[in-house]
Write a structure and sequence with these properties.
It holds the Pfam family MS_channel_3rd. By secondary structure, the chain is α+β, with helices and mostly antiparallel strands. The chain has helices spanning 2-44, 56-78, 83-100, 102-117, 157-161, 188-200, 236-253; strands spanning 125-128, 131-138, 142-146, 152-156, 165-167, 173-182, 212-218, 223-232.
């Protein structure tokens, strides 16, 4: 019993030290968690100070992870770990992981390029490849978009950056193109007048640049009259749909015809010629 008591007395300082270290480590982890939450809220409030909301998700991710890394180093230091050697070890491990995750790092690099060059921002409608949607978030790895039919798409940043990007909402105005088809027997000037009247009745169509009217093509079954007009980008589809809805009754009110595709077939009958079969040569 005396020997066991002596061993317990020797181990007690070690147990006490380990217990205190665990307590301090738990407090450090709790403080790190609270600090990460506060940092996240602080970064999200940057939009109220005029910071572009496109940058906020990336800044939030970087700040939160930096907070966790600092907290982890503090916990290791509490247990007496050599943080300098650990940082060097993590650097070597990071290099190996980076080589293994080359594609992922390409997405991260593309994300920083997108954030730096700003070809689009949150809330803008873009198209890359065959994908079109409204940007909701630009992260370190992916860009999230909402498609016109209500689907959420998460595309790797390197795929977005690697395609030709079309931004539909960056410019303040956008051009509308309408083609009105009339019959060959109709008057072209009357068709032009109908288009001018439609433009004059819609105040959403801009006067600068001025609308343009022209005969686009003499097609197989119709004369195609072309209208080019400009409107505000956020009103583009409303104006386009209204013009298309009003075009048919306006043409019909002027007695113009919207022709269906048609083709004339001329049958020419010639004299029938008698075809004789060649006779085989007789062998001598």
């Amino acid at each position: 019993m005396n020997g066991l008591k002596a061993q317990l007395e020797e181990l007690w300082p070690v147990v006490l030290e380990v217990g205190l270290n665990l307590l301090w480590a738990l407090l450090a982890l709790l403080a790190t968690w609270v600090a990460a939450k506060l940092v996240s809220r602080a970064v999200n409030r940057l939009t109220e100070r005029g910071i572009d909301e496109t940058l906020v998700p990336v800044l939030e991710t970087l700040a939160v992870w930096a907070t966790y890394v600092v907290g982890g180093l503090v916990v290791l230091d509490i247990f007496g770990a050599n943080t300098t050697s650990l940082v060097a070890l993590l650097g070597a491990a990071g290099l190996a992981i980076g080589l293994a995750l080359k594609d992922t790092l390409q997405s991260i690099a593309a994300g920083f390029v997108l954030l730096g060059l700003r070809p689009f921002r949150v809330g803008e409608t873009i198209q890359f490849g065959s994908t079109i949607g409204t940007v909701r978030k630009i992260g370190l790895f992916t860009t999230e978009l909402d498609t016109p039919d209500g689907l959420r798409i998460s595309a790797p940043n390197d795929k977005v950056w690697g395609e030709t990007l079309t931004n539909f909402t960056r410019n303040a105005s956008r051009r509308i193109e309408i083609i009105a088809s009339i019959a060959y027997g109709d008057d072209i000037e009357t068709g032009m007048r109908v288009l001018r009247q439609l433009v004059a009745e819609d105040p959403r169509i801009l006067t600068d640049p001025e609308p343009a009217y022209a005969v686009r093509a003499l097609a197989d079954s119709s004369v195609n009259i072309h209208l080019r007009a400009w409107t505000k980008t956020d009103e583009y589809w409303d104006v386009y749909w209204d013009l298309m809805k009003n075009l048919k009754p306006a043409l019909e009110a002027e007695g113009l015809t919207i022709p269906f595709p048609q083709r004339e077939l001329h049958i020419v009958r010639g004299d029938e010629k008698k075809i004789t079969q060649p006779q085989a040569l007789e062998q001598e």
